User: Fold these one by one.
Assistant:
Number 1:
Amino acid sequence: MRTNILLLSACAALLALPSFAQTRSANPMRGMKPFSGTVDTVDGKDFKITGPGGTTATYRLADSARIMASQAATIADLTAGKFVGCTAVGTHGRLRATECHIFPESMRGVGEGHSPMNRPNTTMTNGNITMTNGNVQTASGAGGSVTLRVSYKGGAQTIEVSPRTHITMIEAGDASWLKPGVRVAGMARTESDGTVLVQFLNVGP
């Protein structure tokens, strides 16, 4: 479940980049479907995976595919100046983070912003999940919890992060990370010739 949430949040942010906006100006997520599994073989940009239930499928990396990996992080990593994406729920201005993703400097500004979604008492940025993307201005708290002040163009949000919040560190990568045996999750679109073209790929557990 967390893998899918991470996938959708990161994908939504990545697809907001100008390179995608120029080619898919209407809705870059349109027609995309999620997938996950373990890589069996790699042949250039084509790779085959075994997914849930033992099903197999072949995918091809798009020339513009964004490749990332994630690793476990802690509240201590949420320091001032970091660019983060925090999924959150709450009412009356009180937001409680369920996930926080720390982005690398190369992705600073990606998906920046804050907006509501159709699920009750939730917010999101550039995607299907609750997210606030911005720069951590301050981090203070006690008892293993912290309160982040996350700023973005046009505003800021105060978000509570507890020991139960799932925190990850995101790293930007390339096609060399795609190897037999690694676990992957991604978003792909089926082209008119039947090729399943991957636009986003998350590598890792």
Note: The first strand starts at residue 33 and ends at 43.
Number 2:
Amino acid sequence: MMMSEFIERTGFLPMAFEYEKIEEAYYNFDGDKDAFCRAFVKAGGEKKVYQARALEIERLNSRILELDRACKRDGEVYEKRLAFLQAELDRELEWKPYEFTQNISQAQYTELAESVPGGAAHYMTDDEALDWVCGEFGFDRSQVTILHEINEQEINRHNQCRASGRKIDRRPIYCATDYHYIRFNVGRGGWQWEAWNGQIRPFYD
């Protein structure tokens, strides 16, 4: 019996996997297709199929939740293991703070910053820093971005460098025309510069 014949006789539309079981029952039934369909309806076959379907859905949902919990547990174990191995690798590589020698050192910046509390120097506003940079070096004001921090760098025992993820204070400071610091970028390409004591220098990061 084709599924279409079953549907026409019972008015019930089973799923494909459900009809496989119905068809198996039909083959074991002692009678023709019409008799089988009448017996199916009389015995509440549609209700039984719906009940079985609900149980299967519940079983599948339970299995999905079980797999989801297992995946989360496995994911947490993986993340912890990965973090442990990364920490072990970092210890083996002996990472330590590093400064690119082409840049103004943090010690030089700190020495300038130490004159701020006494009043000899002050932290510049972004507008003040923009005025100085554009007035001294001729940059288009709309293309300049004043920065307040730089990335801390690290180096390992194989002389490989990376950003540590920590930030270092580099707010613009003005003390005198020949004693100041401004870290800034120019343009969408992010050309990196620092102004130091009246000179403009490329910044390496």
Note: The first helix runs from residue 3 to 10.
